[in-house]
User: Fold this.
Amino acid sequence: MTSPEQLRALVDEYLDGLQLVPELGDLAEAVRYGFEGGGKRVRPVICLATGEAAGAPAQQVLPAAAALELVHSFSLVHDDLPALDNDEIRRGRPSMWARFGEADAILTGDALLAEAFRQTAFYPTPEVARELAEATLGMIGGQHLDIHGEVHDLATLHRLKTGRLFAASVGCGLWAAEVSVTDQLPWRQFGEELGLLFQIVDDVLDEDGYFAIHGADGARALAAEAAGHAQERLAAIDADTSVLGEIVTDLAVRTK
Amino acid sequence: MTSPEQLRALVDEYLDGLQLVPELGDLAEAVRYGFEGGGKRVRPVICLATGEAAGAPAQQVLPAAAALELVHSFSLVHDDLPALDNDEIRRGRPSMWARFGEADAILTGDALLAEAFRQTAFYPTPEVARELAEATLGMIGGQHLDIHGEVHDLATLHRLKTGRLFAASVGCGLWAAEVSVTDQLPWRQFGEELGLLFQIVDDVLDEDGYFAIHGADGARALAAEAAGHAQERLAAIDADTSVLGEIVTDLAVRTK
Assistant:
């Protein structure tokens, strides 16, 4: 099995080598700025690890993995805009709009999203594209809820904003590996737990959300519980899921 | 054959009945505002007419046609934003951001684009999605050129901003009708002429672009020439392209 670090290197290499359509012209620089930001690549690594555990070589899963990272990048670029979260800094450097201006940040987010679907079109059948489109729509619905502060239920908000794309990271890995619908259920139950785990730890690190409600110890306990559930789900899958298990452990104890 | 007016009614009916994903929540109202704007539906009508001429029932082509209209709607919503063209009025009513605010206008454009790719995922193979993704990226590249005023060649700008999606309207109709690559060439030559024709007439009506350079009579003459080329291309296709011919005539003489 390929380690999470090796999988991450594969994602970086694939994205570095990604040939954008020439018609993007000068906007290509901003588009690359959007996906070369040195993120943790959590979603594509989960996708690749799922695909490999389900029996597919990384080469077969990489377009789906890249598409997930591109959708994640698109969402960061648009969420950082002044009209939304108004963030000038992202991963220690200027956010897209702070660096390239609002107009190009809007267009760049659009291009990242369109490029994601160009990646999913490398598959002979439409399941990866459908899974990603539905997850993206759910994520957008979550961001809409978030900015309007209409949500009293943190779990609902996070299930949309974070959980949908995490679940799709597992789902797209399964489709890319050509796992049949009937065999997907236990994997998908694992995917549901993953997003929750990620979000709780995120809130602990940002000192908001679950942290604000449950306190540091309470939130850490919830994260440990979610990690336990995720490992139980993995144990129910008839495959070598050791790398996914390692990812769960890493997510539970991460400090950035 | 089905008349352009009947095809347009089919598009409206399909979009009216379109089931959005429930996770969009309250944002669904804005998303519907984005594609129910009473536009001319030029692109989806061309897509349906192409598909029918190539032997496919409308039912088979409608998701592709709707996807084209959704991409067009997405581009209008984002182009109207204050950071881009800053238009408060679109088709005689408040533009998306003027009606729903900038944040929701950004999210709504995103949702229209993602919904377009959800529609293309209804096809068993990825060609419609790939064609649409590439056209969308070209269109975004064109908008980037436009706002930065880096273009001295109007034809290049319009080939991207308008032409790519017009060409894809023909291309997606061909893929939806399962026309083989080798049989697509004459149709695609027709598609190239269509976008140019539309843009020249658009400039005459808006009194800019080709109108500003060539004057009213000069631009009208160019439009007539483009319409003639388009009809010649149709004549070279071994199929009943009478409805596409009617669309060309309508585009050449339109007054709005």
Notes: The first helix of chain B runs from residue 4 to 16.
